[in-house]
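Side project, low priority. Logging it here so it doesn't get lost.
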Amino acid sequence: MEKLLAPADDGVTSGRRAAVPRPLLGRSEEQRLLDDVLDKVRDGLSGVLVLVGEAGIGKTRLLDYAGETGADLRVLRLSGVESEARLGFAALHRLLRPFLPRLDRLPGPQRDALRSAFGLADGPASDRYLVGLATLTLLADVDSPAPLLCLVDDVQWVDGESAHALAFLGRRLFADGVGLVVTGREGEAGLGPFAGLPVRRLTGLADDDARALLAASVAGRLDPAVAGRVVADTGGNPLALIELADELAGRQLAGVAPLPQPLPVSRLLEAHFLRRVLALPEATRSLLLVLSAAPQDDPAVLWRAAALLGLSADAMDPAVEHGVLSRQRHPAFRHPLIRSAVHAGARPAELRRVHGALAAGTDRDTAPDRRAWHLAEAAVGLDEEVAGELEQAAERARNRGGYAAQAIFLARAAELTPDPQDRAKRFLAAAQAHLVIGDAAMARTVLDQAGPVSGTPVTRAAAQRLRAALAWVLGRATTTPSLLIPAAVEVAPWDERLARDMVFEAMVAAMLTREYTVGVTLDELARTVRAMPWNRSLPASVPDLLVAAYTTRIAEGYAPAVPKLRTAVEALRSSDLGQSGLPMALLSYVAAEDLWDDAGCWEVPERISSFSRDQGALHALNVTLYALAASEVWAGRFTSAEAYFGEAAEIGRAIGMPAQGSSHRVELLAWQGREAQTREAAGIAMREWAERFGHAVMASHAHYSLTILELGAGRYREALSWALRGFAADVPGQGNRLLPDLVEAAVRAGDHAAASAALRRVEERAPLSGTPWALGVLARCRALTADDDRAGDLYEEAAEHLGKTRIVTELARTHLLHGEWLRRRRRRSDARVPLRAAYGMFTDMGAVAFAERARLELLATGEHARRRTAVADRDLTPQEGQVAALAAGGATNAEIATRLFVTVSTVEYHLNKVFRKLGITSRRQLASVLRPGPADGI
């Protein structure tokens, strides 16, 4: 039940009688869930719960219960307020205000992010996830004799930035001695950030409980039939039951007089409250209207505005006496619905007059954004002066990272703007701000309001770039290139930097969607970009270098592209990454992969991931973690790959991304020989990602992974059928990695034409790359197709080259193929050496099917080989594995916490569990325990 239902220990009275304490009925399951949260917090862990339901259903009463039951904890309470919903980070500032003196104890990036968000210091715009992490660190590090319980009411009225920070907090709490309970109106947009957290939806009370509550709220006689009618019509809504008990006359409740039609329930509760307000004196009503729009944390503004309107503080008394306001130090509505009723029931002219007074009563220097909004609400028609103030407020919000507030200010500024072109520009800027925070629906609405954009080529290009970005966010990346390229061509003579950025974004989308791209082919895009009249004297950024490399690769072929690919990879290793983000992360490591540059495959995504961690750019970090996981798979470090996949999934959950399933892990599953799971993951990649969203690269990756699966099982014709698809697509990176697999499958399947075609491509490309990886797979492919004793020397050459790389999977397969070749030439004794090496390597990494191939070959040489399993991970969870691996590498607890976006206490909790599971007592023992043991069992 809402605030209204709390025990009346503050002397609140209604118009007819004093309020009496009422029991908390029918909420035993909710009480149990809250008790569970409190128990976890008391045990040093954390608990999170979101309570959702309609107005009056009892959410706030349950918060009261949590506060009362958790009296041994340190309780923080925060309520969302409609008047603050447009002010970025306003609610979070109120919550954290007691702890701001401790800001200096935060890590530098977190401290700076929070200071910038609260306007305490100048600095770059705060990333919302870095602000969320700072909130987590600050609350988890509170010096308090008791754990912390945060109770947040009416979150639908909390500003967007604060809501995202609180949701991030909820997703990252684990072993921090912090509890978070949030309530909100069901169906409200403000609940979006909390998707995926534990939710309890409240419905009306059961019939018996509803009758008991109604009876407890009625002073006189209650007729059973009347009770039944009231309970049925209210749907068991507690607030409606209590208000009706107070609204209806004693004769009606006793069944002597008829009940009104309809009863004031549910959505009519506001009308019920409004009738109570309308019965108050005019001066009281006017003062209530001022209170409904005034800031909650600055009573001086209320009284200054009231004075300007000629209203006295004494006018509040009738509202307190009639239960509209509660008896508190500062005036406060007894229930949020009363505030809504007062505001909704006012005439437009009255509201404008009140907002004008509030603007006049707000200090221009200390609260310029609030003042600007009140001015906007007081404005009629078009007003460029007020629109200009709103635009300045939007810029201040953007500088703090308050993009939701920026969007709201800009949209309202646009509505007040007289000039059509300025109006369109402000709507476009508002749409861009909505896109930054991931609100695609509002971005589309605001973009539609901008209408057809004329004006300069730069303005038109900016509008088209927004439409392209919106298409991407809405799952229509296939249309992005055709939206961007014509606009980039048009704007290039006017703003080449903008044109270059648009071309890069178009290239990223086209590389992702490939044959699914609508309106322009990948080849057409590359040729158009290369033909554009670029100013070659301008310095090339890293994205420019990537565009040059890939357009050359597509339009002219691999050989002319190699020097440009190499230049791009070197720049990615060493140049300033600037505002590196998701597009850069998507293309970063593919160039290294295309060159068979194994060092670059680690160094490039590791560098971008470090940059993304520092900036709090978690979307980009999510992508680069998948790249690092892939590199670990190739290195045969499957446990480490699992840790990266787990961290990527954790980051995805932290930022509210939908679960991505197993499709991104399909190659690891294939190497592990998990057939059913590999086929399921590949099916998701091909159906969901490729066919539904047009992400063709995901289908290519699935084809490659199925090739690996079939090769491991020795099903060569099946492997060949999947490999041929990848050969035709020739996706940069994957296309080259696939070539040795295609050669092997084709040779073993007897398809000499396919083997020769693949070998020719390897022979053309590998020498151009010249890396040990490239030269190693070239030698192996030649060995597979050799028909004489030269194959033995080629296998040894391949092993020598690959032994200088990190690509252990390729080295192990080279040993396996060499051993198989030796055995088939009846050189059994010689075959055992590479076969033992292959068997040990595959077993240690966990490549079960390939290990079995090697074991069977060893048996065929006459050597007994026992089945072995890889070193067990002792049932570590993904996050325990991440913590253990980082600790084994020498990272401190603080460094691990920063890397994984958790707190030090959570790291300590996981390490303790790791020690117990591994049977060790210190982190010094981790490295030896986690390191795979030597090959044995042969």
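Brief comment: The CA atoms of residues 130 and 306 lie 40 Å apart.
Revisit when time allows.
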